[in-house]
Amino acid sequence: VTIDRLYGAWTKSSSDGQWHGLLVAGYLEEMYGGVGGEILYRPFGKTYAFGAELWDAAKRDPDSAFSGTFSGDQALTGYLKAWYEIPQTDLTVGLKAGRYLAGDIGATLSLTKYAENGARVEAFATATNQSDADPFGGATHLYSGLRLTLPLGNAPVIPRGSQMRFAAAPLGRNAGQSLESPLPLYEITEPLSYRHITRHWAEVAE
Fold first, then answer.
1. Which of 3, 52, 90, 136 is the most exposed place for a label (fewest CB within 10 A)?
2. Strands 19-27 and 105-114
3. Are the beta carbons of 181 and 188 closer than 8 angstroms?
4. Residue 39, CA distances (Å) to 27, 119, 123 in order
5. What is the pLDDT of residues 114-133, one digit of tens each?
6. What is the pTM of this model?
């Protein structure tokens, strides 16, 4: 039994709704705690967005009670990020480049499909300057996989916003690993985007 996430956060959006900011500190995810933040520029009605994030992360000790203490391993990690919504589709291309948790430098390219019920499927590939073992026993600079997110908020008794997350990707790697932000700004601003509002206009009008 562990504390997966426990943090305090502050978010702010500009009056015109184009700029969004995040500051957060605490247990950020199951393996790391620390402090960090993100800034996002996402103009309404446009198909592009840009952002940046920076984290001072400390690895949590899995042998401690609730994984509540830190092992002493520290990492400064951050990225420049960009997104592009492919017109007339529910697909988004994402790109981020920067410093990963192992200190390696590289970039991640992703393609995400957004379903109308809130489900997401993401394919990603990361390449960095640090090699690691591949599934066949060799060495590679490439790390890739698939992620599936299914919303559960409409089910009885389950809190609104709950999700099931699945991933298919190599395990036991150091290279190409990034901290999982507890409040990714692009995802939490999606319901306010032009794309989401137009696709769900019937619900909004009701």
1. 136
2. unpaired
3. no
4. 20, 24, 24
5. 887 778 999 999 999 988 87
6. 0.89
Burial (Cβ within 10 Å: 0-12, 13-18, ≥19) of residue 166? exposed
With 0-12 / 13-18 / 19 or more C-beta atoms within 10 angstroms meaning exposed / middle / buried, residue 130 is middle
The structure tokens listed for 198 are 């137009």
Cα distances from 172 to residues 101, 111, 125, 133, in angstroms, run 14, 24, 16, 9
- Lateral strand order in the sheet of 91-99: 6-13, 19-27, 32-41, 48-60, 70-85, 91-99, 105-114, 120-133, 139-151, 163-168
Q: What is the pLDDT of residues 6-18, one digit of tens each?
A: 999 999 999 988 9
pLDDT of residue 192: 85
Which residues fall within 8 angstroms of residue 58, CB to CB, at 6 or more apart?
A: 32, 33, 34, 70, 71, 72, 73, 74, 75
Residue with tokens 């393609």: 111
| CA pair distance 163, 165, nearest whole angstrom | 6
Q: Two tokens at 81?
A: 């990020």
Mean pLDDT of the chain: 90
Burial 36-57 (b: 16+ CB within 10 A, else e): bbbbbbbeeeeeebebebebeb
